[in-house]
Amino acid sequence: MGTFLKSVFLLVCFVAVHTATGQENMVNVKGGTYIPLYGVDSTAVTIADFSMDVYPVTNAEYLEFIKEFPVWQKSKVKPLFADGNYLVHWESDLSYGSQLSADAPVTNISWFAAKKYCECLGKRLPTIDEWEFAAMADEKMADARKKESYNQKILDWYEAPKTFNHEIGSTFKNYWGIYDLHGLVWEWTMDFNSVLISGESNKDVDKDSNLFCGSAAVGASDLMNYAAFMRYAFRGSMNAKYSVKNLGFRCAEDVPKI
Fold it and tell me: Would you say 78 and 42 are in contact if contact means Cβ atoms under 8 Å apart?
């Protein structure tokens, strides 16, 4: 079998296996306009309708992926695409072991690996704006950012230990029907390093994505949103090949225009 045909065959097999797990659930998020924490003079951003996975990708789901695409197994992945922490807690190439739950979010995954996983399903990683737009909802409101209880819940999670091994669906279901955007793991976004804030000005931006950049408050739209500051600081410190024990991902896709 030729290389191209083999790749197509493996992709079809992976999609079929993934669909059979019953966790191929996505929900539509109706787009709109919002003001992000950071941006060009904190101008409003318009989000088109999109779909997002209800849950983060799990250890069990990722295992099926690397079975079909061995180049992403921990002993075979190229250093260019993942650092030494990639799947470091897994027992072996094809086992996450007994210490990790099958239904817990897969972590220690690089951006390159997360991006490829989504692409193999015909999806993509959500953008920062899509993720933030969906994640600003609580159980009842599409935008709960002004609610003290909402922000406190996120800050309390930041202080909680080892939530990365809790099973998916263990946090609240938000307004859109999405679980675990807060309370389980941090998540990769497609353009995670597109907002790099220096200590002087939000216009003083170094485009080198390998740099570590702080989340200065200059230019922020909400100086009291500490939970969001921490997300942007975390994203700004990342390199695409980094793998972190409390960092996972989920997929998104465009909603076809009728």
Answer: no
